[in-house]
Specification:
Length: 164
């Protein structure tokens, strides 16, 4: 008799999923390509989804509702800030929804979004685009395997277990 593999720390999970917001639209899913592969327990996916997967077996399917605090965080009004037009290159067309790369003082690159265009500048939103949203996942375990030593050392899954 063999024990079925279950989702636990140190397993590489292949996940088929779709993500809907409260309004009902599917905004992301794995259906167009390969299932999402990640190392369980390593914080590679949002915590609210990761926590809900423990103990599931291949083929198990589940609906998971994730509150903002366990998802992309609450919307922080202080995260919306005004930047004068002179901050940007002169020939740059700034539009609402446009993604820009920004850099913090320690050199980390992150993405901010133009949330409003004003006459003399723009409002940039430093919140994640899904901040404040309750997330509704349909999740199905498509595959499970123990992580390789290298994956455990790196703290993430490698595509098809390939080394790098
Ligand atoms: Zn690696």
């Amino acid at each position: 008799m063999t024990t079925p593999l279950l989702v636990q720390d140190g397993m590489v999970v292949s996940l088929d999923y779709s993500l809907r917001l409260a309004a009902g639209d599917v905004i992301d899913s794995s259906s167009d390509g390969e299932p999402l592969e990640f190392l369980q327990g390593a914080g590679q996916i949002i915590s609210g989804l990761e926590q809900a997967l423990y103990g599931m077996a291949v083929g198990d399917e589940k609906q998971v509702t994730v509150a903002p605090v366990d998802g992309y965080g609450e919307m922080d009004p202080a995260g919306v800030q005004f930047f004068p037009a002179s901050t940007f290159p002169e020939d740059m067309e700034l539009e609402v929804g446009m993604a820009l790369q920004a850099q913090d003082n320690s050199g980390h690159v992150f993405t901010v979004y133009v949330s409003e265009v004003q006459e003399d500048g723009v409002l940039l939103d430093f919140n994640h685009p899904l901040a404040g949203e309750t997330l509704h996942f349909q999740a199905k375990i498509a595959g499970l395997r123990p992580a390789t030593d290298e994956e455990l050392a790196h703290g993430h899954a490698h595509a098809h277990g390939h080394s790098h």
